[in-house]
Amino acid sequence: MPRLILKSDNRVLKDHVVGAMSTIGRRPDNTIIIDDGAVSGHHACVFRDGDDLVVEDLESTNGTFVNDKRVTRQPLRRGDVIAIGKHTLLVERVSGDAPAGGDAAKGLMSNPGDTIFLDAKKHQALLAMLRDADVFATSSGGSPARIGVLRVVGGDTTPSEYRLEAHTSLIGRSDTALVRLHGWFKPKVAVAIARGADGYVATLMSGKTLINSQPLDGRCKLKDGDVLQVNGLTMEFHLSG
Length: 241
Fold this sequence. Notes:
The chain has 241 residues and is mainly β. It has one helix spanning 120-139, and strands at residues 3-8, 11-17, 21-25, 32-33, 44-49, 52-57, 64-66, 69-71, 73-75, 81-84, 87-93, 109-110, 117-118, 147-154, 161-164, 168-172, 179-180, 191-196, 199-204, 209-211, 214-215, 219-221, 227-230, 233-240.
């Protein structure tokens, strides 16, 4: 599996396995947390798609660099060095050590070729989702009084209830998803649910999702009692006391 080695001053701090999507930044809800004033709250993200690995800057203040070159989106290969603030991430392994790029980029990626791009709509959805998490972190000063819960009422998954306690919870086939969809052709990330200061917002990432029998297109604030239908899985959203 793809791995990133986090270093500072030539010291190894941590070895990270890259899931379907790993975010990098200063805030505690990131997959890879970097405690550095030069690092944005949500600075960059790394996507895995088969043998392909891509880093994308999330409109950070000080930029993301690969092999000393500032990048917006960049396919990665074994041995590449990502610089974020005063820290570096060494790409220690890419699945199969195959070159990043090529025509295998599907799922969360689009426009395959020499450079892999995150689909513009999905990129904006991801940024919006992370901004919701930022609003929660900066304005709420703690957990909201009521925690969101998804209760499964139809479909194949366990457990039957999921508490949405994280800043961002994913529904999909990905190993990093809170609610796992079963089946090879299910989306890696179908829906992202962001926990904000004033409630929960669902963002469509891939595939087709219905909320109260209406197609989800973009983002939707969830209300107590809403019914989500995601790729054969039916869940009720409730706010617990």
